[in-house]
């Protein structure tokens, strides 16, 4: 019965190491997604430290690939040293992912204040020219999120660009996508997106941070199972070094 349990633990551990390799790719993808999305919204979010969870999660993803390799070799060969190293590294990565979750929640709570602090400055800096980074950012956000202005399209009336153009219109990025003849005129508000961008930008950034948090939590749970299986194999290996190897012909460390 004990031997069956050990063999099962070893089999699960090998399978988990394969999952670690898949997890490494997924975590790196999530981290890269956060970086790419941040680049689209960076004008509305000045605190670059919010990228720390993404940096950590990419580093964890890279480390998970190495962990999977160490775990597979240590489990198949039943190396006491290899398994102990595997458990220690998994524990350190687990602690790191807990830190990612905590930082994720901290920065998620800061998103609203950050956006509220910077969005008015960005809108006031709009000049309507494509080469201007702030103008491109606003047009991109308004088209992607289907919004107009900070709270609604009337916010454009208080901007420098609106007062300088004097044509009683908002940028064409405020026009509903289905309309081809929209000119952005405030005399036809039904042609414009009615929802403001601030709430939608906050929601988008908070969703992205939640992706990081859930990814870290999910793989932390898998790592806990990996540590448990490795400890079972390691303890049994220490008490009875003569028990059957997972692969016939393996050697002991």
TrEMBL record:
Q: Which domain of life is it from?
A: Eukaryota
Main subcellular localization, coarse class? membrane
Any stretches that span the bilayer, and where are they?
Answer: 12-36, 48-71, 83-107, 208-235
| Membrane topology annotation | Multi-pass membrane protein
User: Where is this chain's protein located in or outside the cell?
Assistant: Membrane
The family database entries (PROSITE patterns) matched by this protein are listed as: TM4_1 (PS00421)
Q: Which Pfam families match?
A: Tetraspanin
Alphabetized Gene3D superfamilies for the sequence: Tetraspanin
Q: Keyword Transmembrane: yes or no? A: yes
Report the protein name in the record.
Answer: Tetraspanin
| Subunit field text | Interacts with claudin-11/CLDN11 and integrins.
Sorted alphabetically, which keywords does the UniProt record give?
Glycoprotein, Membrane, Transmembrane, Transmembrane helix
Instruction: Describe the function of this protein.
Output: Regulates the proliferation and migration of oligodendrocytes, a process essential for normal myelination and repair.
Output the PANTHER family linked to this UniProt entry. Answer: TETRASPANIN, TETRASPANIN-3
List GO terms (cellular component aspect): plasma membrane
Family as reported in the entry's similarity comment: Belongs to the tetraspanin (TM4SF) family.
């Amino acid at each position: 019965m004990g031997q069956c349990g050990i063999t099962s633990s070893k089999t699960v551990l090998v399978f988990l190491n394969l999952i670690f390799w898949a997890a490494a790719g997924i975590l790196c993808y999530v981290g890269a997604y956060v970086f790419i999305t941040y680049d689209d919204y960076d004008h509305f979010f000045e605190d670059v430290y919010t990228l720390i969870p993404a940096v950590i999660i990419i580093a964890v993803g890279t480390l998970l690939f190495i962990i999977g390799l160490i775990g597979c070799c240590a489990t198949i060969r039943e190396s006491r040293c290899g398994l102990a190293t595997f458990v220690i590294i998994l524990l350190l990565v687990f602690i790191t992912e807990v830190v990612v979750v905590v930082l994720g929640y901290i920065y998620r709570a800061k998103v609203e204040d950050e956006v509220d602090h910077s969005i008015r400055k960005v809108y006031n800096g709009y000049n309507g020219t494509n080469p201007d980074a702030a103008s491109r950012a606003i047009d991109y956000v308004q088209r992607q999120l289907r919004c107009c202005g900070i709270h609604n399209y009337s916010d454009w009336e208080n901007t420098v660009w609106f007062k300088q153009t004097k044509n009683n219109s908002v940028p064409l990025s405020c026009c509903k996508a289905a309309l081809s003849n929209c000119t952005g005129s405030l005399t036809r508000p039904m042609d414009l997106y009615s929802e403001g961008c601030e709430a939608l930008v906050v929601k988008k950034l908070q969703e992205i941070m939640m992706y990081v948090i859930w990814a870290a939590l999910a793989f932390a749970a898998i790592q806990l199972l990996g540590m448990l299986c490795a400890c079972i194999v390691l303890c049994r290996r220490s008490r009875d070094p003569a028990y059957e190897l997972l692969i016939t012909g393996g050697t002991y460390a």
